[in-house]
UniProtKB/TrEMBL annotation:
InterPro entries: Class_I_gatase-like, DJ-1/PfpI, INH-QAR
Sequence ranges assigned to domain DJ-1/PfpI in this UniProt record: 63-191
Xref: SUPFAM superfamilies: Class I glutamine amidotransferase-like
Protein name: DJ-1/PfpI domain-containing protein
One GO biological process term: regulation of DNA-templated transcription
Organism: Mesorhizobium mediterraneum
Source taxon at top rank: Bacteria
Pfam families: DJ-1_PfpI
């Protein structure tokens, strides 16, 4: 395993095709009782890509509806960097949800999500997050997926949205994935699109301490 990692690291120094020197901003909107596993699995490929590329290709921030501490379904708490909508639009925005699908202010949430879409932000959702995109009318023309436990209720609430059983779906500038490690698979698709396919395996094979 060690020689393989050494070879992958050497290959990473030549990954200039399709790369950009601009740091891309990824925002994670943490809804109440969000899935920590999904968020972690989305962040780790970004961290690994930065390490392999040798510069900060990706930066990320956490927001919550009220700008206060966000509580994950596993009991962990994350201090939000800001209230949702406070900063300029990021390059990517992922709505992260889990055990509850009740927003503090659904109207404000939907308004800002639609504003981000008009601003050209790439919109996505992790685990149960697609529910909030759908309620904002932002999945009308896109296939999507979400955690299997939420699929029956989603079909009932949104009968005209095409729901897939795939672990992640990228369609019409919407990025959705099921729960757990599906976020990792989706990010391992996004990163090579921007920095060359040769980066996919090195990111996936990074040693845990990184």
């Amino acid at each position: 395993m060690t020689p393989r990692r050494a070879n992958l690291g050497a290959a990473a120094t030549n990954m200039n095709i399709g790369a950009t020197d601009r740091t891309q901003c990824i925002e994670f909107l943490l809804m109440d009782l969000f899935s920590m596993m999904s968020v972690t699995c989305a962040i780790e490929p970004l961290r690994a890509a930065n390490r392999l590329l040798g510069y900060e290709a990706y930066g990320w921030r956490f927001s919550s509806e009220d700008g206060q501490v966000a509580h994950a379904s596993n009991g962990f708490s994350v201090v939000a960097d800001e209230r949702f909508g406070a900063s300029p639009a990021p390059d990517y925005l992922f709505v992260c949800a889990g055990m509850t699908l009740v927003a503090k202010d659904q109207t404000r949430l939907s308004v800002i999500l639609n504003r981000r879409a008009r601003e050209g932000c790439q919109l996505g959702a992790l685990s149960m997050g697609p529910v909030f995109l759908a309620r904002a009318g932002l999945l009308t023309n896109a296939r999507c997926t979400l955690h299997w436990e939420g699929q029956p209720a989603f079909r009932e609430e949104f009968p005209f949205i095409e729901l897939s059983n795939e672990i992640y779906v990228i369609d019409n500038n919407r990025y959705t994935c099921a729960g757990g490690t599906a976020a990792l698979d989706m990010l391992l698709h996004i990163i090579p699109e921007q920095h060359g396919a040769v980066l996919a395996s090195p990111v996936d094979c990074q040693p845990v301490p990184g």
